[in-house]
Amino acid sequence: MSRISDIFSLKKISDADVGIEIEVEAQLHLPQLFLGDNNQYWSTHGDGSLRGISAEYVSKPIPRKDIVPALDFLALATKASKVKNSVRAGVHVHVNCQEMTEEELINYIALYTIFEVPLVNFCGDNRIGNAFCLRMCDAEGAIDIINSFMRRGVGHTTLDDNLRYGALNPISLRKYGTLEFRSLGTLYPFDNVKTWCEVLLTLKEKSKQFKTLGDITAAFETVGPKQFAKDMFGDLYKTFFPNFFDHDILVGFSYIRELTYFQGKI
Description:
It is a single chain. The chain is α+β, with helices and mostly antiparallel strands. It has one domain (4-263). 41% of the residues lie in helices and 14% in strands. The chain has a 6-stranded antiparallel sheet with strand order 2-3-1-4-6-5. A hairpin with a 7-residue loop joins strand 2 and strand 3. The radius of gyration is 18 Å and the shape is globular.
């Protein structure tokens, strides 16, 4: 079975799990960070969408075990800057999907879609309906991408640049072999980023338990929405479902249930 790195002829980065981009606005001077002996993780970039004293900190591709040390390093480096909780500043996490097969990738996107509403709820009130990270229920055209992945294949699907402003951005697949998750808000000292990365990687792992979308919908319908959420989130369940509402999951599941029919026709 073809893997994403082969489909897009990408240079493989097998030892990295995520890349993190953190937009920051601050009250005081922000440090300029460059990769070197004393900084193994971050480089500083400008971002025209931000205001005042601002920067975007971009990590190199890092393994799961380095996520917490990398974020702790950045928190310490920016401690004196008094980072603001700004509606303009967000966090973009690229999850490495290079070694996934097309089927695994589709299942990963499907699990994310089922849980997108509670996932984005975690990201902050000002991220819901944000024009730069629209959920699939806000812009349902994104569902067509999953349909096209199944019908035509990932490599033969046109990834329109308009998709880059979804909460889930698949455009980065063709350049990096990653899925970009854009909905998290910047909140110092970045502990929410640690949790966010962990849940994204957990869902990626869980997606490999299923062979097809039909397996996912069958498991969901067998145990029900609440137990399915507990099975998929594990120890993170209470963090993302402080109050459980079936409707929050059934919205996303309805999209995937419909697509299951098409997968059976391929």
